[in-house]
């Protein structure tokens, strides 16, 4: 197979926008509050459902993953506040750091100025109704307006079809159309541009992963729009020779002849055919009156289809220090023009030694190191390039030479003839044959000198050593920063040491009230060269909110994580702060201080608790309580602002208020409620209770006043109708009972329950019925053996259930041979009867409780041949169960609340049986669904399936 047969068409580069991002440097010592002690996965992907490890997301290869996690030290968290546009910094378990620097943007800036992880997912703007996560500052105002509009009124279908998709978590604002003819936009700050295709079909795009595909946008031409971390990539795919030979876009925006739009840039266009032939594509800006057009005219002569014009990219322009990469060629396929062609926008980097046949290629690459502190000690720096393909004999390695570039260069202007000079020394590295894997180079010496400023960072130039030989064409290809897969772009991992990290002050940390001897606590610092047991700390105190500081101790004992100090002599203040920094014997780290002010003041005992509930102050009018384990509540109050309850003690006494019934003892808790344990209180008893509390300084309050309560007696009943095991003559039951209550409370409600399966389920439930009636008549119930429970309520509690068991109800459904004599039935009861003659028909009726779908099921033995028909209240047939002989019926039908429905059961062709019954039941349909999602290796949803669990 040809090495480029994977391509489906020709690619053109349209544009690439870039801004100058401020880089947040890592300080000399990074305070520990800037990173999470949770796993890196939680730190980076804390709002997502991704189950892949962070390192796998970033690198995609185990070899690069191990560059961070080592046998003796592992990542403990990302230094979130030290992110930059292209860099993530991680703290290792030994106190050192590793920075992962990518040539692709890793973060966008939200409206609050925080760096957030880039996600190139598309969102349908017509479905935006709320913002739950941070959004790019470039898109937030427009997105908020869309949310407001969508919530104000539902977007019409026609409008939705012509709306746009949005990328909310990228460092620019863009609108990708659902219909190609609308054109797409990208903006950054005040810079804006829109591309509207001329002569194209207004086809609807289909969403895939990070973009849209528009089939047949022009004749025999497809177009893809992809969202990338640095911009929008447009790929034009010419499928055969019937495709156009020129493509025109009307441009809205300030596009100049150099293809710049303020801070954004349109990259040079190029194409590649099915045989791997590269060519530049001419892009011409034309003005016609007030209108501006961009024309792309590819030279298609002699090319093999399909051809891709790629990457047509609009991107954010990097500043002079930002990372960049490019390849330069000379005499490629004997074409001398390649020496003056810029390949800064290509998605591949090439390294090829000098030869007489296929020419020579070199790769230029520069990483932004501004996030590494100047005083950092670089211990290792490894550059990773992901290999696309290699052209040379498979049984040998290929030698590369990495030189330091000594002068500035422009990614979008550099060519072979205009390449920067490089130092004569180089790093020698053999690269083994492989495909689709990471290759790495140790560039520690270069990184050390760049970080310290020994010489300026202009990047590196990678040269190939071998030329053409009889064994093949040595040629290495790697993915560049312009590749659509952000996980495959070049990366640099730098390990470095610095001063000790800041400790974490844990107490006092804001809001505390201290008086007298108190203990200051902190979490220890980490340092690559000093163990925690040898670390010392300087502790300072401020009583004026940080305006002035003085030492409490110049240096603690080694390994200390707490320090006791007597604040008795300190004047009262509400603006006290503590700050602490670590000392490793050579350097001080950064300070960490209390998150907020704490208070120094003398403490007073809490007031007696009040608002006691339940209860009254009079035992003769004690509050009735419906449980033997009541929850007791009170309110805590303290004269000292900021004090809180730290413990409580509950005392329960008899009706006289003197005899102690129960003592909870001191319970250390801030909660102002207590549940009395079981077995302590008796029904009908009167009790007085009180509580005393401690504040967070240990001071004890006076006892509260006594609060009296009476434990309710449960009501009782005696059933006066029927006897256990009685055979009844009818299916309608009339229950009677007598009610009694020791507290003299009248019956407030009652409830009757029935079961046909020994209470495995409830087949009949009257529900709670308010009133003092002592009799109740059930509706007609299904035949068979039933057990019943009756409960009564005194308005406070329900009684214990009293039962009538094994009542036998007959089959008294007959006569029910017509709708007029239909037997009334209930939901979820199994009814059983006979078709006793060739002319016998059985009718049943019921009333739908709620609108929806009901289910009729009928069980038949193999010898029964019966059908069932469902009618509405006007006897209009709405459903039927007419399966073959001996088959059970399962019929679904729509019902409306309050409407009556009839069920007619007949023997087919006069079929009947005087001894074998049929059985049926009507129930409400309950459907439960769940959705299973499938993801690819990057965490993107690739498929979903929703199934009914019932």
From TrEMBL:
It is found in: Secreted. Keywords: Secreted, Signal. InterPro entries: CBM96 (IPR055372), FN3_dom (IPR003961), Ig-like_fold (IPR013783). It comes from the Bacteria. The keyword Secreted applies. Gene3D superfamilies: 2.60.120.380, Immunoglobulins. Residues 499-603 form the Fibronectin type-III domain. GO terms for cellular component: extracellular region. This is Fibronectin type-III domain-containing protein. The lineage of its organism: Bacteria, Bacillati, Bacillota, Bacilli, Bacillales.
């Amino acid at each position: 197979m040809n090495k480029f047969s994977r391509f489906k068409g020709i690619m053109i580069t349209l544009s690439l926008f870039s801004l100058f991002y401020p880089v947040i440097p890592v300080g000399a010592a990074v305070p520990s509050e800037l990173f999470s002690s949770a796993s890196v996965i939680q730190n980076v992907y804390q709002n997502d459902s991704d189950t892949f490890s962070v390192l796998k997301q970033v690198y995609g290869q185990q070899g690069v993953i191990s560059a961070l996690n080592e046998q003796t030290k592992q990542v403990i968290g990302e230094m979130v506040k030290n992110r930059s546009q292209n860099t993530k910094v991680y703290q290792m378990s030994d106190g050192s750091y590793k920075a992962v620097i990518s040539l692709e943007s890793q973060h966008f800036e939200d409206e609050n100025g925080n760096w957030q992880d880039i996600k190139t997912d598309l969102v349908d703007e017509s479905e935006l109704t709320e913002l739950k996560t941070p959004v790019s500052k470039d898109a937030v105002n427009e997105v908020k307006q869309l949310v407001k509009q969508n919530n104000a009124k539902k977007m019409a279908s026609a409008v939705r079809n012509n709306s746009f998709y949005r990328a909310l978590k990228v460092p620019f604002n863009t609108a990708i159309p659902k219909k190609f003819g609308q054109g797409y936009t990208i903006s950054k700050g005040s810079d804006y541009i829109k591309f509207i295709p001329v002569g194209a079909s207004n086809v609807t795009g289909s969403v895939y992963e990070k973009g849209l595909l528009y089939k047949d946008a022009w004749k025999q031409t497809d177009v893809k729009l992809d969202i990338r971390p640095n911009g929008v990539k447009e790929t034009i795919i010419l499928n055969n020779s019937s495709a156009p030979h020129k493509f025109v876009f009307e441009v809205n925006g300030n596009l100049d002849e150099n293809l710049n739009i303020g801070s954004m840039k349109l990259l040079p266009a190029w194409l590649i055919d099915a045989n791997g032939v590269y060519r530049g594509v001419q892009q011409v800006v034309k003005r016609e009156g007030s209108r501006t057009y961009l024309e792309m005219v590819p030279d298609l002569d002699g090319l093999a289809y399909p051809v891709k014009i790629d990457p047509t990219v609009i991107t954010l322009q990097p500043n002079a220090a930002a990372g960049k990469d490019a390849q330069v060629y000379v005499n490629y396929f004997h074409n001398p023009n390649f020496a003056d062609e810029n390949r800064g926008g290509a998605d591949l980097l090439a390294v090829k030694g000098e030869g007489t046949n296929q020419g020579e290629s070199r790769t230029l690459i520069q990483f932004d190191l501004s996030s590494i502190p100047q005083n950092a000690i670089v211990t290792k720096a490894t550059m990773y390039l992901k290999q696309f393909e290699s052209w040379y004999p498979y049984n040998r390695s290929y030698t590369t030479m990495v030189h330091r570039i000594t002068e500035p260069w422009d990614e979008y202007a550099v060519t072979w003839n205009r390449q920067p000079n490089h130092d004569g020394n180089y790093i020698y590295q053999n690269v083994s044959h492989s495909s689709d894997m990471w290759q790495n180079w140790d560039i520690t010496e270069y990184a050390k000198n760049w970080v310290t400023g020994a010489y300026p960072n202009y990047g590196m130039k990678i040269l190939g050593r071998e030329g053409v030989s009889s064994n093949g064409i040595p040629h290495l290809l790697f993915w560049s920063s312009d590749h659509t897969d952000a996980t495959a772009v070049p990366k640099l991992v730098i390990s470095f040491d610095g001063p000790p990290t800041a400790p974490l002050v844990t107490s006092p940390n804001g809001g505390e009230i201290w008086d007298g001897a108190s203990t200051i606590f902190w979490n220890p610092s980490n340092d690559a060269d000093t163990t925690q047991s040898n670390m010392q700390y300087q502790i300072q105190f401020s009583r004026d909110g940080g305006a002035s500081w003085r030492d409490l101790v110049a240096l603690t004992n080694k390994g200390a994580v707490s320090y006791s100090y007597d604040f008795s002599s300190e004047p009262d203040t509400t603006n006290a702060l503590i700050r602490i920094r670590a000392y490793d014997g050579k350097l001080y780290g950064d300070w960490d201080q209390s998150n907020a002010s704490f208070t120094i003041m003398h403490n007073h005992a809490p007031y007696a608790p009040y608002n006691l509930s339940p209860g009254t102050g009079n035992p003769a009018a004690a509050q009735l309580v419906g449980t033997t384990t009541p929850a007791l509540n009170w309110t805590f109050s303290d004269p000292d602002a900021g004090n809180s309850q730290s413990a409580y003690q509950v005392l329960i006494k008899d009706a006289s208020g003197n005899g102690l019934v129960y003592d909870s003892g001191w319970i250390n808790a801030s909660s102002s409620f207590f549940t009395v344990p079981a077995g302590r209180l008796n029904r009908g008893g009167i009790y007085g209770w009180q509580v005393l509390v401690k504040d967070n300084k240990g001071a004890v309050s006076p006892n509260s006043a006594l609060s009296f309560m009476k434990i309710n007696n449960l009501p009782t009943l005696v059933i006066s109708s029927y006897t256990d095991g009685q055979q009844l003559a009818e299916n309608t039951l009339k229950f009677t009972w007598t009610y009694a209550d020791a507290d003299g409370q009248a019956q407030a409600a009652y409830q009757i329950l029935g079961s046909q399966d020994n209470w495995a389920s409830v087949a009949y439930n009257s529900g709670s019925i308010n009133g003092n009636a002592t009799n109740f008549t059930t509706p007609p119930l299904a035949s068979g053996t039933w057990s019943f429970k009756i409960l009564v309520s005194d308005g406070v509690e329900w009684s214990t259930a009293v039962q009538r068991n094994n009542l036998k109800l007959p089959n008294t459904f007959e006569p029910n041979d017509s709708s007029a004599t239909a037997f009334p039935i209930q939901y979820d009861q199994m009814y059983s009867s006979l078709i006793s003659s060739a002319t016998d028909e059985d009718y049943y009726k019921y009333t739908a409780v709620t609108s929806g779908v009901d289910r009729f099921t009928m069980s038949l033995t193999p010898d029964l041949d019966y059908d069932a028909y469902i009618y509405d209240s006007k006897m209009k047939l709405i459903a039927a169960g007419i399966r073959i002989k001996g088959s059970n019926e399962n019929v679904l039908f729509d019902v409306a609340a309050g409407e009556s429905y009839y069920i007619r059961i007949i023997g087919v062709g006069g079929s009947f049986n005087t001894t074998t019954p049929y059985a049926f039941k009507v129930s409400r349909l309950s459907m439960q669904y769940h959705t299973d999602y499938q993801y690819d290796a990057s965490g993107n949803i690739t498929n979903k399936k929703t199934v009914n669990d019932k």
